Amino acid sequence: MANVVDLICYPVKGCAGTSTSDALLTPAGLAHDRSFMVISENGIFRTQRRHPRLALFRPAIGTDGTRLTLDAAHGADGTGRFGTLCLDVTTSAPRRDVDLFGTAFQGIDQGDEAAAWLSEFLGAPSRLVRVPPEHNRITDGLTPGPSGYADSSAVHLLSRASLALLNQRLAERGAAILPMNRFRPNIVVDSHEDHDHDSGGDPAALPHAEDRARRISLGGAELGYAKLAVRCAVTLVEQETGARRGPEPLRTLAAYRRAASGGVVFGAKFSVITPGKLSVGDEVVIQEWGDADL
Q1: Contact (Cβ atoms closer than 8 angstroms) between residue 281 and residue 215
Q2: Distances from the Cα of 145 to the Cαs of 71, 95, 153, 284, in angstroms?
């Protein structure tokens, strides 16, 4: 039997996540996930691919979404001089044009104080925007669905069995094993069964079972498979320090996780079919299986 073992929300795209024992799954993913985004002065989203120090921000947002805290007290300079910034979230400020992977959207600017704080920390002129209420982005995949400012689909799901197999292969190469946060999932699942990929038993316990899961029920919600998660240079960033530590895991993943459509993949993206409450410990039931896109 597989269960939810972690739920992670990333209120600000590209910044650190916050683990929680309970979360509301909305049509666009975990409540408040990727509902804010750091952008350049001309509206292009900032990412750890170019600004790995984003990993050092520890955002937290209240349940009602009206108060956002950005904590950088343990920033890379070690001085603690950036401390914590607390913002009253606005949904009525003017909209700005934003660019997410070449697609135009709108964002609600969160003011000059946040912009100045982010700009100093990142060393580049930046602003903070929020997804507007009228945001109507629908992402593609086998099961399309709404999404905030996530790279693609609303939910990224990854199993501990998949990470265990990767770490086994890394160790065989003499490379350091990696923590789950390198891959920034929203939902982490695990099974009590053996993670040996040659073992029988529950297919949900096998590494990369998420590749073949087409419909999942967990807690009071349902997910529909959208696509495999294509990995990029963000996986090279050590999330605790905001430093790039290449070439792993991409080098090892490239040896056994190349998708038929191209790219290195690890984990899977899902759209929300039925919103509901999720909790750590919820049973994960695969209602429908398919073939992996590898």
Answers
A1: no
A2: 31, 23, 7, 21
Instruction: Determine the pLDDT at residue 202.
Output: 82
The pTM is what? Answer: 0.94
Q: Determine whether 199 is exposed, middle or buried from the number of CB atoms within 10 Å of its CB (0-12, 13-18, 19+).
A: exposed
Short-list 135, 269, 287, CA closest to 221: 287
**Model pLDDT, residue 193:** 66
For residues 89 and 130, the answer to whether their CB atoms sit within 8 Å is: yes
Report pLDDT for 197.
Answer: 53
CB atoms within 10 A of CB 134: 7
pLDDT < 50 regions, the chain: 78, 199
Cis peptide before 249 (omega within 30 of 0): yes
Structure tokens at 161: 């069995």
DSSP 65: S
Tokens of 192: 């009590």
Taking the C-alpha atoms of residue 87 and residue 89, their distance in angstroms, rounded to an integer, is 6
Cα separation, 259 vs 179, in Å, equals 23
C-alpha count within 13 angstroms, C-beta hemisphere, residue 90? 14
